[in-house]
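Agenda item 2: 1,6-di-O-phosphono-beta-D-fructofuranose complex prediction
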Amino acid sequence: MLCGRTNVNKFLIEEQRRNPSLVGDFSMLMSDIVRSCKAIAQGVSRGSLADLLGDAGSENVQGEGQKKLDVLANQAFLRHCEWGGHLAAMASEEMEDIFPIPSENPRGRYLLVFDPLDGSSNIDVNLSVGSIFSVLRCPENCSGGAPTAVDFLQPGAQQVAAGYALYGPSTMLVLSVGNGTHGFTLDRNIGEFLLTHPNLVIAPETREFAINASNERFWEPPVQRYVSECLAGQSGVRGKDFNMRWVASMVAEVHRILMRGGVFMYPRDSKDLSRPGRLRLMYEANPMAMIVAQAGGLASTGSQRILDVQPTSLHERVPVILGSRDEVERIERYHREHE
Ligand code: FBP
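Presented output:
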């Protein structure tokens, strides 16, 4: 039964009519992204039945082993979004270089950035994974010549849209086009995402945090202080007991925070000194920062708001602390006090 719910295409067309800065075929581009996510949802749900689990036998640009579903999900985004004429180029966490739109297709005015399958260590154990995407405007000067990686290096505050698909017990799409954060659930009977969670709001306070606690000895001191205060419970300075969760899938963690509050941390640590954090600015941190900010939450590196970070390379990594506003501000304060 449809129950008169708005489907995602209608929602996007109405958003485009409301916002004159969403030019051209923006809603058509978003429909292509939605179709990519539906195709990936189908592959993820078939799993072993379609021989889609396990390693692909290849490595991505980060030197990480790729799963078969990583490769399939990357192809799904490229295949569904390359021909519509809405994009100038794409960049994926799984590909070293950008993917310019092939010359046989018309070139559009947007850039698409995506992490096709986030949390892929969960695939083989049949736990939640997701896709993350971000839409940027192609700078003026890239509409003539072929776009380059430099055209993608825009702070997250300039994102036109961002979102994720969560392939969990039900498949959900959560997105923002700069007017709040909204959740849609895939109705498999009719093959459409229907608006089920309009205007999501993250509670400013929380009693729940998410962090990979096995890295505690490597964390930076402000994060060690924050977590130890949470663990001290009612008798400590926070005066309340905290709960902890770790799904090892950023999409699932952010989704839980949108549903019931909380704070997620993948902080700077000393485990691998070659990088300032584990998560990627363009593919993970920026889109999630927009989603969280549009729901009233905050996203920070600890010392800077994520949406203000000027990217310097396509695959750069950043520390990420996001979620309930009061908690993120507290952790930022601990960083300032530590300086
Ligand atoms: P991938 O992009 O390689 O999937 O890594 C990202 C991620 O899986 C996040 O979704 C998650 O928060 C984190 O890595 C889990 O890291 P850890 O292995 O330390 O638990």
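Discussion summary: The first strand starts at residue 55 and ends at 59.
Owner for follow-up: CH.
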